[in-house]
Specification:
By secondary structure, this protein is mainly alpha-helical. The protein has 3 helices and no strands. Helix 2 packs antiparallel against helix 3. The protein is rod-shaped, with a radius of gyration of 28 Å. The chain starts with 17 loop residues before the first helix and ends in a 50-residue tail after the last helix. The mean pLDDT is 78.
């Protein structure tokens, strides 16, 4: 197996959290899942990931079917583009001086 992961059925496989990977694994058939398991064993060997993948492989062996959908579908774990709105922009009114005046303003009377 090569180090190139572009052939894997799940895009950005190495960057997905385990929970997201579990969701995407439901869309894979047995051959695709076996390919990802072999890749993980050869590269990261992350036990939580292998546990999730092997569990799904067992489900497929027992007769489960891939869930339909796209393994590259909606990716909530990826941050979206910034909206362009600046943080801290509000429609709040400007700050008004206290009713008794500002002590540093010489035109206002002092009590």
């Amino acid at each position: 197996m090569t180090d190139d992961r572009s052939h894997l059925a799940v895009p950005d496989y190495d960057h997905l959290p385990t929970a997201a990977l579990a969701d995407r694994a439901r869309t894979l058939d047995a051959a695709q899942l076996a390919q990802i398991i072999a890749y993980e064993e050869a590269h990261g060997a992350r036990e939580p990931v292998l546990t999730v993948l092997r569990q799904r492989a067992s489900q497929l062996d027992a007769g489960a079917q891939p869930s339909g959908g796209d393994p590259a579908g909606l990716q909530p774990e990826a941050a979206g583009a910034p909206s362009g709105e600046k943080v801290g922009d509000t429609d709040a009114p400007p700050v008004n001086p206290p009713s008794h005046g500002v002590p540093t303003n010489p035109t206002q009377p002092r009590g």
